[in-house]
């Protein structure tokens, strides 16, 4: 003999109670998250800001370039070497002032602009392939401590210059 279960005609009371309980739990969760953000947010933000500042201004560790030939004497004179100056420290007018300083040393300045990012800790000189010796000479002239191949910049962004100077905070 087969028995069928009785079909419920009313599903409302238990379903309504479940929806109300779920809504109250969601409201409590939102209130707890807001209270936690208000209580712990400023101290967490301060800790994150301090850690980021320490990481950005940490001393740069020199990493030797593999298979990098010794730099011989520059093949181009200062008057034949063109430079593009980028402001990476965020100070207004820093690129123009550095461009004037570079020009006074006898270099050709192709332009000065803001770097795509600011907050560089150190001034660095970047070079296109084949211009490492000229980059080392420019770094010596500007007392820059970091010299590297183009990193994050395309050669086309240099407006024809062989070298780029990215100004840092020191």
% residues in beta strands: 15-25%
Subunit arrangement of the protein: single chain
CATH-derived architecture of the largest domain:
2-Layer Sandwich
Rg, alpha carbons: 31 Å
What is the overall shape?
A: elongated
Q: Which spans of ≥5 residues are poorly predicted at pLDDT below 50?
A: none
**Secondary structure category:** alpha/beta
Number of helices: 3
Residues in helix, %: 25-40%
Order of helices and strands: HEHEEHEE
How does this structure look, described?
The protein is an alpha/beta fold and 170 residues long. The chain has two domains: 12-58; 78-167, 2-Layer Sandwich (Alpha-Beta Plaits). 39% of the residues lie in helices and 15% in strands. It is built from three helices and five strands; from the N terminus they run H-E-H-E-E-H-E-E. The model has no long low-confidence stretch (mean pLDDT 84).
